[in-house]
Amino acid sequence: MKYLTKCFIAFFSLMLSTTMVFAISYPLFQTSNRILEDSYYAFDTGDYGTAFRLAEEAKLMRRLEVDDCLNLFIQAMKPQAVQKAGDSISEVLIILREREVFDAVELIEYLIDLKGVSFFDNSVEKIKNYIEEKRIFPEVSYIMAKIYEFEGEYDLAYSYYLDAWNNAQVLDIPDEKYDILYDMATLSYNFTNLEDCEKTLLLILSEDSYFSDNSYSSALISNVERGYSIEKIFSLYRTDCYRTIPAFFRLTELYLEQGKSEEAFKTAIFGVLTAFTRIDHILFSRVTEYQYDSLTDFFELAMKYDDILNWSIDNGFWRCFYRLAELGIDIYPENKEFGYSIMSIIAESAPEHYWRQLCIAKINQHN
Question: Is the pLDDT score of 353 beyond 60?
Fold first, then answer.
C-alpha cells in the first residue's frame, strides 16, 4: 500500500510539473512584464529598494517563462514526423495539427500573429532563436541602471545602461533604445564624462540619414558660408528625424563648452531645422491652406498654439536658435547677416523675454 501511495504521489508530482512546464499563457511573458511594471511604479514613487527587488524578480520570472516556452517547443519538434517536415513553419504546422499538438500550434501561431511570418523567414529554427533571445531582458537592465544612478553609483549605472543598449534589439518597444541612450548621455554629463556623453549622443544622430549624409550636410554648411540668407536656407532644407532634436540641442551646448565652434554650428543648424520641420508639419496638419512663406509669419502663427509654444520653451529651441545666430556671426563673418537675421526673428517672435532682450541688445551693438 505504501509503495502504491508513493507511486501515486510520484506520478501526480510528475503530472503537476509537466503541467507547469507547458502552461503557456498569452500574451507571452505577461507575468514578467507585469512585475517589471510594478518595479517602474515603485521607482517612480521613490521606493527604490522595492523597485530593485521587483526588477530581480522580473528577470527570474522571464527566465522561467522562456524555459517553459522552449520546453514546449522542443518537445513538439522531437518526433521524427515533425523533423521530416524540415525547417518550414507552414510544413511543420501541418504535421503538428495532424498529431494534435495544439499547444505548440497555438504558440507558433501566436508568434506569427505577433511578428509576422516574414520576420521568421518561415523558419522554425528562427522561432526557437526568438524565444531564446527573449531570455535577455534589457528593460530590467534599464530600470536597474536608473536605480544605481539615483544611488550615485556611476560605474554600475553606466554598465547597466550599456547592457540595455547592447541588447536593444529585443526591446518590446524598439524606440525605447533612444530613451536608454539619452539617459546614458545625461548620466555621463552629470559625472563629467564628456567624451562618453558625446559618443552616446552621436549614436542617436547616426540614425539620422540627413546628418549622416556628408554631401547633404556639406552643402548646407557651404551655402551659409557662400552667403545664403536664413530665409533661403529654411526654404531649401528640411530634416525630419524628430527623435534627434534633443541630441542636436544637447550636443550644441556640449561643443560650446569645449570650444568646438564648427561642430556646434553644425549640430545647431540641424537641430533648428529639424525642430522647424516638425512644427511646419504640425501647422500643415492643423491649418487649412497653410503654406510656409517666411520665418516671421511662420513663428507668428506657430506661437499662437500653446502646445507648440510650450514645447519650444521646454526643449530649448530658442536657446539653440540663438546659438545658431551667435555662431554664424563668429564663424562666417562674410555672412554676418545670416546670424543677425536670426536675432531679429528671435527678438520679434520668441516667447521668452530673456532671448528677445539678448537679441535686441546684440542687434543694437551691431548697428
Answer: yes
